[in-house]
Amino acid sequence: MLTAFARAFRTPDLRKKLLFTLAIIALFRFGSLLPTPGVDYDAVRQCTTSVDDDAGIYGMVNLFSGGALLQLSVFALGIMPYITASIIVQLLTVVIPRFEALKKEGQSGTAKLTQYTRYLTVALAVLQSTALLALARTPGRIFQNCAADLVPDDSLFRILTMIFTMTAGTGLIMWLGELITDRGVGNGMSLLIFTSICAGFPNGLWNVKAARGWDAFIVMIVVGLVVVAAVVLFEQAQRRIPVQYAKRMVGRRMYGGTSTYIPIKVNQAGVIPVIFASSLLYLPQLVAQLGDTTAGWRQWIERYISRGDHPLYVLMFVALIIFFTFFYVAITFNPKEISDNMKRYGGFIPGIRAGRPTEEYLDYVLSRITLPGSIYLSVVAIIPILALGLFSANQNFPFGGTSVLIMVGVGLETLKQVESQLQQRNYEGFLR
Amino acid sequence: MTELHDGSAVPERETGDDRRETGSVASREKSDRRGSSPVARTSLYFRQVVAEMRKVIWPTRHELTTYTTVVLVFVLVMIAIISVLDYGFGRLMFWVFG
């Protein structure tokens, strides 16, 4: 199995892709550690080491940006603005007729939508960097018990330069992600989130050991392994819909007559719903930051939505995950397209007529199978909150459902892509 | 081949109740839904969910263990690479800015 990794590196074009991906990841980490001009590097270092595990309101976002956010680095905002922008654009395809028309248009329409997503990303990045810098300007607001002055010179020009730098950083990350998707292995966006989470992982693990001793550490590792196995189990589970291909004569040769199946995964949506749900729940916090500290609505948001352990938060999180799972499956899996394709090549599901009934049948199976899938996603995602009660561990619990889900999900996806490329050259892959 | 073509073209022209004859689960379920109470409909939905879940093919024990170990190895390797990178870049930043 391990030799497969070596074999992957021995295949020339695969090696090129893997090294390219690694180079981009290295570049991404470099930018995440590079301080933004105008930030007092020593002060930031002091603060990050003194308050390591209590990121407070920024916990989840800091996790997604791999610690870059609290270091106020060039890539401080990470891919969060892009994720938020793509959620908004995808939601808008349902609401705004023009967007819907664009989506149906095919490739050129999708290109247009991607363009809108990018503009929106830049707008959100400006907004978020402004909010972050407004917070960083006053000492002791990002880090509750650290009084060092993070931004010594807060003249307008300086602040504008910083906003500009962070926005440009977000744009660069967006491009890096697309480069990985195009020329590397795996999906760029998810790989970059994966990188960020991996970066914060050893530290989080160590914090648990330091805070609770070896017993809790070992229990957590065991729980983590169980979660990993559960995620693999559910990601691999699929409902196979049998498809028969009719035999047909083309000229003097026989074609078809084979039987295959359409694999419908229990969790067809992957990790996207969890990412969407957690970034959407972060939005109210972002808005709250801009408001007055004493305002009633802001305190309400801070009490119920910012803290990850409140029942209302858990409830909203679960509801959002279930919603996004159904939503994302509906967006990405098109029963009509599949049934049309089958019809064109003379395929049919035994017992069901081609065309409309096939489409309805696929839709029927999909809408039934997605419910357990979405429940599984939300159960895994709220494990850290359950652990919060059991272990009184903090929110950055490294085996938190969201992080494990993303790590395992992205890992599986990427490995499968490498595997299929290995198999193209008749090599036996990892997953045998 | 011609037969198949006819068969596939027919449902597109016909609409509504004719589809029930095809005997697909989807259309049967549709006729069941008509005129029933929300409670009955939800319970039917959940029964259908259970029925579909029974048809799901789970990975075998062997598959599960190999996939889990492969993913674990991959994630650990990535964490190691990224930690080394972070350490190196951190030292570099400290040297330049600190």
UniProtKB/TrEMBL annotation, chain A:
Record has Hydrolase as a keyword: no
Domain of life: Bacteria
Cellular compartments annotated: Cell membrane; Membrane
Alphabetical keyword list: Cell membrane, Membrane, Protein transport, Translocation, Transmembrane, Transmembrane helix, Transport
Major location category of this protein: membrane
The protein's role, per its UniProt record: The central subunit of the protein translocation channel SecYEG. Consists of two halves formed by TMs 1-5 and 6-10. These two domains form a lateral gate at the front which open onto the bilayer between TMs 2 and 7, and are clamped together by SecE at the back. The channel is closed by both a pore ring composed of hydrophobic SecY resides and a short helix (helix 2A) on the extracellular side of the membrane which forms a plug. The plug probably moves laterally to allow the channel to open. The ring and the pore may move independently.
Protein family according to the UniProt entry: Belongs to the SecY/SEC61-alpha family.
Record-linked NCBIfam families: 3a0501s007
Protein name stated in the entry: Protein translocase subunit SecY
Organism: Motilibacter deserti
UniProtKB/TrEMBL annotation, chain B:
Keywords: Cell membrane, Membrane, Protein transport, Translocation, Transmembrane, Transmembrane helix, Transport
Transmembrane domains' residue ranges: 64-85
PROSITE patterns per UniProt: SECE_SEC61G
Source taxon at top rank: Bacteria
Subcellular localization(s) per the UniProt record: Cell membrane; Membrane
Topological category with respect to the lipid bilayer: Single-pass membrane protein
InterPro entries reported for this sequence: SecE_bac, SecE_sf, Translocase_SecE/Sec61-g
Keyword Zinc: no
Ranges of compositional bias, category Basic and acidic residues: 1-35
Keyword Translocase: no
Stretches for region Disordered: 1-38
Assembly, per entry: Component of the Sec protein translocase complex. Heterotrimer consisting of SecY, SecE and SecG subunits. The heterotrimers can form oligomers, although 1 heterotrimer is thought to be able to translocate proteins. Interacts with the ribosome. Interacts with SecDF, and other proteins may be involved. Interacts with SecA.
Family: Belongs to the SecE/SEC61-gamma family.
Annotated function: Essential subunit of the Sec protein translocation channel SecYEG. Clamps together the 2 halves of SecY. May contact the channel plug during translocation.
Protein name, per record: Protein translocase subunit SecE
Gene name of this polypeptide: secE
